[in-house]
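2 proteins. here.
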Amino acid sequence: MDSPSHTESDDELRLRWAAERTLLAWVRTSLALFGLGFVVTRFVMSDAGQGVAHSAARAPAGSAVALGVSFVLLGAAASAAAALRYRSDLFAAGSSGRLPPGWALSFATSVIVSLLGLLLGAALFGVAD
């Protein structure tokens, strides 16, 4: 005999959707930080490659590259933290103590974005040397 399946209440669905929207907002923020870090690093590298003289008022290229890589790594950390927060929010929202179906895709996407951010940070740091 089959046991009755658990159906989510309206409150559980509302909390689940809110957790998903929050996760997606953090992933968008992470991607924006990746882009900012990439642009800062590449701008400095292309500036140095064209032989533009650095005046005393400008920051050294090394510190600008470190700033760009820091933005990328901050984005990776934000994405990882968002994935962990999403999972804990789903556990807290569910009355059965189980994760709802379909949660893994959003969680995995956030984790993959975080890993790609780490790879981008390493690549930018490696290219800058």
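next one coming up
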Amino acid sequence: MDERELTSNLLEEIFKALGWEEGHLLRAPMTPFFAAVCRRFARLAMRFEQDVAGQGFCEATRRILPHFVHSVHICGAEYAPTDGPLLVVSNHPGTVDGLAIAAHLPRPDLKIVVSGVPFIRRLRSTANHLIYSSLEPFERMRVVRASMPESTPQVVFDICGAWEYTMTANNGNTYDAGIMTFEGEPAKGKYLQVNIYQVEYQGEYAVNGQALKLTGQETWQGTIENVNTITGVWCREAGANGTFVARRK
């Protein structure tokens, strides 16, 4: 890992985000401007990587955090278990939330879900505390589940019966709603979906622990939160996608 490689990786991510492919008219004149910022960030990343290797992930995040925020106020940290299962969900996982959590949650088994871009993958010592994923929701959920220890106790849920569901599109509007009825075994079976317009769809479901997957008119992938609630994401081949919540009738 060297400064030039990290800077190059960062530049490519910026151009990709802007939609400036190779040969774009603005790439050449804007490269010096972006390169200066990328070099500064690359040096910071290299120092962070050295601190992770020498001082540990928690201490390294404490040291780098002041470069991004003036202060962090923690409330309720005493309720976080020091070992055993723990899931921390942040509002802004792509910004400084992950650093703030890592700096104030002293757990050696802490892992943060990140996008597997080349820049991040070059941080070898930091990699022990990362779970690489993509921007695609289904892939994220698959990667997180695959990272869980095989010894994690699996809770068996029987979802057979009728559920009221609401599908929400990415723009925040309700996409569909109705009743979904599951018939079969706890691990697999068929479902009948009847929306508010009395249009019927059929498909199959599969349950693995708390993970649920539906294949039919749409592909649904969710988590059985408890015996009465299921939440997750859905998508259609046409490109529509969003989130859903289902509650047992």
